[in-house]
Amino acid sequence: MEILPAIDLRDGNCVRLTQGDYERETIFDSDPAAVAKRWVAQGARRIHVVDLDGARDGVRGNAAAIEAIIDAIDIPVQLGGGVRDAAEAHRLIDMGVDRVIIGTAAIEAPDEVQAAVDELGAECVIVGIDAKDGMVQTRGWLEQSDVTAIELAERMVERGVRRFIYTDTSRDGTLTHPNFDAVAELSENVRYPVIVAGGIASIDDLVGLAKLGVEGAISGMAIYSGALDLKRAIETIDEMTVAGG
């Protein structure tokens, strides 16, 4: 299982939001590229970046910071937030992003998701499923849909999507542990790679997710607050993988 440090961008800063609330923001660093280099030094093999301004407004809000991160490190960067059509997905891949994450458009413009998969290939496109109480949220988690997480995943598989990020938005930034039951249910129904975010607080949480067979785990608040040592976490999961656990 891969552990991905999260870099959430707002107004060019590296921040964290509690439960996605834009009014509950903590600024951790004004130099996101330096943060990315720090996580690489601790063993990260991929960085997860979210343009929070893009997620809320639907337009690219942190292009300079994104480019600086890509230029500063030599590991892949996946990015979400404001990717509402295939053209924007294409622009980000051309910029140097390795994989784009599409959330809102999966509900509002599924044809654009399929177009992105057709043009860029399934390896370059991830659908982000952000859910609260099992129901998908969109537009930076500000709007609630009437679609369940599993329903959305099944629809997207029909569109050619082969990788998902599942976030329990009620747990994101809270260090209250992942929603293991929801993760297990999604994994059993989708049977394609799932990356999990939201609530991760400890190495035990990561071990639990690895045992569920998920492909990756995204950590934000835990590593920024010091609750989780990224280097030790990566080493622990690597050892578990070698041991066949």
Question: TL;DR?
Answer:
The chain is an alpha/beta fold and 245 residues long. It has 11 helices and 12 strands. The longest helix has 13 residues, at 230-242.
How many β-strand stretches? 12
Q: By CATH's scheme, which homologous superfamily applies?
A: Aldolase class I
Alpha carbon gap, first and last residue: 11 Å
The top-level CATH class is Alpha Beta
Structural domain tally = 1
* Largest sheet report: 8 strands, parallel, barrel
By DSSP (H or I, 4+ residues per run), the number of helices equals: 11
Instruction: Give the strand line-up of the largest sheet.
Output: 1-4-5-6-7-10-11-12
Mean pLDDT: 94
Q: Based on helices, strands and strand pairing, what is the structural class? A: alpha/beta
| Secondary structure: helix percent | 40-55%
What is the global morphology?
globular
- The poorly predicted ranges are none
Structural summary, described in words:
The protein is an alpha/beta fold. The chain is 41% helix and 28% strand. It has eleven helices and twelve strands. Strands 1-4-5-6-7-10-11-12 form an eight-stranded parallel barrel, surrounded by eight helices. The longest helix is centred in the last third of the chain and has 13 residues, at 230-242.
